[in-house]
Write a structure and sequence with these properties.
7-stranded mixed β-sheet; single chain; Nucleoside Triphosphate Pyrophosphohydrolase; alpha+beta; 140 residues; 21% helix
């Protein structure tokens, strides 16, 4: 019998933010993944030998259609996913240009206030990243 694969899955993502075009308030982008029916920060597995920050920005572009200017390094989350250890490195990133187009991986995005984003996130572990972002932007 083969033993279960305990190799850590390496992934990266961003807490994507912008200033509201309406009132200038901080907004955070969450993505909805129909496969899991969940709301999360844009993130994904790294390709072989891919730099974590480059992978995080690639995932933001793929999942949200937005280019982003990376900012402060945020927390690294570690948890089990499908029985395997997973490690996700996060950065703050300001949305600069682009527009969302629904795709098979992400069918909707929302731009929400920090409080609304915290409440909408499916996984409790993702909520601390909003606090990290606010601290990095000196808003906490």
């Amino acid at each position: 019998m083969s033993s279960p694969d305990t190799t850590t899955v390496h992934a990266a993502g961003c807490v994507l933010w912008r200033r509201s075009p309406i009132d200038g308030e901080l907004e955070i982008c969450l993505v909805h993944r129909p496969k899991y029916d969940d709301w999360s920060h844009p993130k994904g597995k790294l390709k072989r030998d891919e730099d974590a920050l480059a992978g995080a920005l690639r995932e933001v572009a793929e999942e949200t259609g937005h280019e982003a200017a990376p900012g402060a390094r945020l927390s690294t989350l570690r948890y089990l996913a499908n029985g395997r250890p997973k490690q996700v490195q996060y950065w703050a990133a300001e949305a600069t240009a682009g527009a969302f187009t629904p795709n098979t991986e992400v069918d909707r995005i929302l731009w929400l206030s920090p409080t609304a984003a915290r409440n909408r996130l499916t996984q409790l572990r993702d909520r601390a990243l909003i606090d990290d972002l606010l601290a990095a932007l000196h808003l906490a």
